[in-house]
Amino acid sequence: MQPNPTSPPLLTDTQSDMLQRFRQQLSQVILGKAAQIDLLIIALLSQGHVLLEDIPGIGKTTLAKAFARLSGCQFSRIQFTPDLLPSDVLGTALYNPGENRFIFREGPVFTQMLMADEINRASPRTQSSLLEAMAEGQVTIDGELRPLPPPFMVIATQNPVEHHGTYPLPEAQLDRFAMCLQLGYPEPTQELEMLFNQQHSTPVADLPAVLSSEEVYRLQQATGKVTVSDAVGRYLIQLVTATRQHPDIQLGISPRGALTLFQAAKARALLEGRTFVLPDDIKVLAQPVLAHRLQLQLQARYSGRRKPELIQELLQQLPVPR
Predict the structure, then answer these.
(1) In the chain, which end has fewer C-beta atoms inside a 10 angstrom radius, N or C?
(2) What are the beta bridge partners of residue 89?
(3) Does the pLDDT at position 181 exceed 90?
(4) pLDDT above 70 covers what percent of the chain?
(5) Which of 15-24, 202-211, 221-230 is the least confident region?
(6) Average pLDDT, rounded, for the chain
(7) Ramachandran region of residue 136, left (φ > 0), alpha (ψ -120 to 50) or beta?
């Protein structure tokens, strides 16, 4: 399929204005992180999940709460701890003596936007309780399929695995996160502004909903209509194939990873006001979408090779389509 630069826009003026207000409101909560905010919006448009990885106190939880409030979606939060059980996430059946039957009580996963706070502090068994929900938008409990309300999105936070009391996420779960983002420390001027802005109240408390769950669904449907040329599609496949053949990479990008990058590129094009994907969309999104999925060879890890650097090297080696 070849893009048509003269095709009509996929969003109405009202939808475009809402997306811009969404961006602006988030930028007022988390100062100086425009790139990370755009990536979070791209994940929402492409129906993906996001892992926020950084040290404690950097603003991960604040960003996730503000994002959920502005989206207008139903929100639940789970504080992951070492003693958390899968039933605490999914729900459980309780016996009702008055009705002489078991009644299922839904867990916090039955929501539209789920915040899994410090997800890597829970045991691998509890972490895996989200696998089906993230991949299929449903959970199976006692042999019964229970759909989750759309649009379903998980925003998980985790501390670096070197910190005490953390468990590394398994490869299967990392592959279900569309992106892995780091916030980093704010600039001194932005941190000073934050001190004075939050001396009386937190900025999240008074945030109005800019979107609604219905509007989010329509934006996701519009994302699916963005076109991708054959040349850009081949460029994407060449990139993921290169990760599978690189001598320093033990586990390359899966087909799920390729599809995630494909959908994310369409979402970035929509956010930028285009009806077609450019090679630059692939290049900008390659690191946040692909790097966390790679598994390096043991020798490469000991020699200090880093996953984002490998992605950039592969991008530099590939010819960019016109």
Answers:
(1) C
(2) none
(3) yes
(4) 95
(5) 202-211
(6) 90
(7) alpha
CB 275 within 8 A of CB 226: yes
Average pLDDT rounded to a whole number, residues 182-211: 80
Strand (E) positions, 47-167? 50-53, 75-79, 91-96, 101-106, 113-117, 138-141, 144-147, 153-158
Q: Which residues contact 109 (CB under 8 A, 6 or more apart)?
A: 76, 78, 89, 90, 91, 129, 130, 133, 139, 148
Tokens encoding 67:
């994002």
1.10.357.10, 3.40.50.720, 1.25.10.10, 1.10.8.80: CATH of 225-322: 1.10.8.80
Contact partners, residue 237, CB within 8 Å, separation at least 6: 258
Cβ-contact 138, 132 below 8 angstroms: yes
Question: What pTM does this model have?
Answer: 0.91
Distance CA 62, CA 78 (A): 14
> Helices 279-290 and 34-45: crossing angle, nearest 10°?
90
State the Cα–Cα distance between residues 80 and 157, nearest whole angstrom.
Answer: 10
The answer to whether 292 and 52 have CB atoms below 8 angstroms apart is: no
Q: What is the CATH number assigned to the segment(s) 11-188+212-223?
A: 3.40.50.300
Mode of pairing for the β-strands spanning 113-117 and 153-158: parallel
Q: What would the pLDDT profile of 209-240 be if each residue is shown by its tens digit?
A: 999 999 999 999 999 999 999 999 999 999 99
Task: Give span(s): CATH 3.40.50.300, the chain.
Answer: 11-188+212-223
Write out pLDDT tens, residues 124-143: 889 889 999 999 999 998 88
Asked if residues 175 and 128 have their Cβ atoms less than 8 Å apart, the reply is no
Is residue 3 predicted with pLDDT exceeding 90? no
Query: With 60 as the cut, is the pLDDT of residue 84 above it?
Result: yes
